Amino acid sequence: MIVGPGDGVVATNEVPGSVRELSSLPDPDYVDLFTLSTDASTTPERWARAMFGDVPSVTGRLIWRGLLGLRLSRARSSVTVAGWQIGGLGEDWIRLEAASWFLAANLLVHTADGRVSLWTFLRYDRALGRVVWPPLSAIHRRLVPRVLRGAAARVAIRSQRGERTR
Fold first, then answer.
1. CA 97, 83, 155: angle at the middle one, nearest 5?
2. Closest to 69 measured CA to CA, from 134, 154, 128, 1
3. Are 112 and 144 a contacting pair, CB within 8 Å?
4. pLDDT tens, position by position, 68-77
């Protein structure tokens, strides 16, 4: 089940302190949260890779690089997920970081209590961020539930095959 307050947008003053501390963006301009209840269990990094892949997909390149100008790695690496730098990692969370000349972004994958959550944090570094992101955020909020469901299916398949999930 996908859960998001309202349309998935969380007021920045409603972000729990424990989550806010995991972001590298101290004063984000945009935050959203999507959560999926799941029986599938794996590490936050494996969840992130199940969501986004090891290298950016065609859609990822179009949106992240083309429209948002995010500087992403092109090569498969143990320090990136879909081109995003792994900026922090804990037992139940992973933070992916990327930036362009007009905004900075964090994707935070958090696992707890039979749920996987994806937080998106954005900080507008130039006025263009305030113009570009609002229409793209509507697309983002439609895509994220599909991303979470697809990741859960991939994690479940790997578990059934007996692939290492921890």
1. 95
2. 128
3. no
4. 999 999 889 9
pLDDT digits (tens, 9 = 90+) for 101-143: 999 999 999 998 888 999 999 999 999 999 999 999 999 988 9
Q: CA triplet 104, 109, 111: central angle to 5 degrees?
A: 160
- How is the chain split into domains, by residue range? 2-158
In single-letter form, the type of residue at position 157 comes to I
Mean pLDDT of the chain: 87
Closest C-alpha to 119, from 69, 51, 60: 51
CA-closest candidate to residue 73, choices 101, 51, 98: 98
Do 61 and 134 touch, CB atoms closer than 8 A? no
pTM for the complete prediction? 0.88
Q: State the fold for domain 2-158.
A: Alpha-D-Glucose-1,6-Bisphosphate; Chain A, domain 4 (3.30.530)
Dihedral Cα 126, 13, 94, 147, nearest 10 deg:
-80
Helix 44-52 × helix 127-160 angle, to 10°: 110
